[in-house]
């Protein structure tokens, strides 16, 4: 039963809606921006209407399977670990894209929204909004790169752990968080290293002026 539900959730996550919506507009979003087959590049390639639709569908493919399983009380506590992470892994390693999927931000929001009735996804959104505004001020309005976006998503996910701990979320939720965090670390590894390298170089230049 757990295996079947994990498989269904994985399949749902593996549906690459943003990528397919791009193809509808004759755009390959894997060759746009940072090449991530997610809604941000769909937005860039096909405009805001397609972008919003992409965000919504990528959100729902995480939300719907988890909500249905939760509603029907099919699993409990620790059994949630593989099932909740499955849509994220489906998006990140989609068989429809030869296992080269996306960064799994939108689908993570969907999964957390269903699993915790929007509680955790709202907290994560607040953390990201604070980080985004802070970075905007630091960069004095200059555009934020996709590497910085990915770095914020990873750091924001890390900071979310303090909130989960503070609000006494159960162990299985912390385990799901850990899986989500490790996935973000992996999927953003190149961009994160680039952001850290740029920051260290900038600090060195400032120290030697
Ligand atoms: O993480 P993805 O693949 O859902 O894509 C996320 C959006 O493009 C926003 O960065």
Structure commentary:
This protein has one domain. The chain is built from 10 helices and no strands. The protein has helices at residues 2-14, 17-24, 39-46, 48-71, 80-92, 105-115, 119-138, 146-166, 171-187, 189-207. With 209 residues, the protein is mostly helical. Helix content is 74%, strand content 0%. Bound molecules: SN-glycerol-3-phosphate. SN-glycerol-3-phosphate binds at residues 36, 38-41, 58, 102-107, 149.
Average pLDDT for all residues: 95
Q: Specify the structural class.
A: mainly alpha
Q: Helix proportion of residues, in percent? A: over 70%
Poorly predicted ranges: none
Give the CA-CA distance, first to last residue.
Answer: 63 Å
Task: Give a topology summary.
Layout: H1 2-14, H2 17-24, H3 39-46, H4 48-71, H5 80-92, H6 105-115, H7 119-138, H8 146-166, H9 171-187, H10 189-207
Helix pairs in contact: 1-4, 1-5, 2-3, 2-4, 3-4, 4-5, 4-6, 5-6, 5-9, 6-7, 7-8, 8-9, 8-10
The structure holds SN-glycerol-3-phosphate.
Summarize the structure.
This is Glycerol-3-phosphate acyltransferase. The chain is mostly helical and 209 residues long.
